[in-house]
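Field reference: sequence -> structure
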Amino acid sequence: MSDQLQILADAIAAGSDTKSEAIGEAMKGLFGTRFHKRSASHLDQERPPFIRNAYGKNGAESEHVAYAGFINPENPPSGPYGGTSLVWFPRPEGCLIDFGIGTQGLSPDEGVLTRPGHRRRIESLRKHLVSLGVTAWARQDPATMGMPVPKVVSDMLPAWKSVFDRYGNELYCLAEVPKDNPELAKRVVQAFVDLYAYERGWEVLKAAEDEYQSFIASLHCAWLATPSKDEIARLLKSRRFVVLEGPPGTGKSRIAKQILKEAFADNGVITQFHPSTTYEDFVAGLSPDVANAALRFQTRAGHLMEAAKKAGESDALLVIDEINRADLGRVLGEAIYLFEAGHQEEARVVRLPHEIDGAHEFGLPNNLFVLATMNTADRSVARMDLAIRRRFAFITMMPDREVVKSTSTDMGLKLFEALCDVFLEFAPDDALALMPGHSYFIASDDVVLRDRLRYELLPLVDEYLREGYLGPASGALHAVRNLIADSSSGS
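Structure field:
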């Protein structure tokens, strides 16, 4: 069987050298080779309603802007159309391929264009294309109309000035198809075609199913990427002050303890912040002493000073668990001045309110490192203010499918993926921080898994639903919640 995707990619990459008949046949050829023919309406007609072919003038300098592509089949057979489309614009220099909105507006694809999952896949597509070395751009919100393609982008693609002048307000994801690299051109065209097919629900033929599913999964996984323990340790050694942030159950505390043990030979201090944590607990202060049957106060070093003492000849690590549960402004006090990223040539010191161990001044040794964790699902605490935030590097820890795949059962993996799909597809950005982590699914068998689902995961999901944290995604989450409940009861 011929490689119809390569034929289409070659036709697109050739730009204005491709004739109208050739591009039309290449587009039709996808159905029956990569996608089932029943995915295409009226394919046998000369002008199927979901195909637009306006290559007529081949991109000549005139009012006509040559293009071809796929549109929503509910549109009229000719004239202006609405909804999302996959189109490309040929020029003598090559071709520009893009997702765009018809000049008639979002209808009939409001459901696709306004869905968080589509926006996330578009951003993942852009990153994928850039990783291939292709010039690519994506709008932050695909449903935004009336905003031109930014000048910094159009300046990189001067051959398509006429396209930007006429359709710049409607384009929301674009890439240049390389003219002289057939293999790369195919990968670019395939990325756009497969994502458009996914959004349209085109049926993929078995021969292409693995390749197609793998690509779509990679777009989703880009939002669940988690750095390795070695990457975290490397950044920590470089920046000194790092926060691991993410949803509950993503292994933040476990990795912090592993790094303390493996990268610092257990030389350090672990503390956990809570609403009652004070400056006296963390830095230094007075504590009551009743040893002689009379109340008096003595000075006492806090966890920060204890960790600093451990940083003698060898590196030391201070682990702060749940750093955002305390009032950081009050807990850190003037010590926030000491938290400056990187290694300082001139050590910073602050004056303490009390003399500790014969000294009124205190500074952080260059070989003391701080690794904190922050649960982004905890809505009972205030967000970390920018003055404190800028002093730390942040690493986001997301649920890891590979951990579930290697440590859970088939049922656990299936439920994990169903839960992730709901969050990625429907949850607004701030609700992604609520996605339950992989640790809820770690189990040696289905008996252990059912207990974890029933007594750990379900109470968390029910809390989300009661509080309405997921907004419009609550309906989809409730359906998965019932699936988890049914599985945990063994029915």
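Note: The mean pLDDT is 90.
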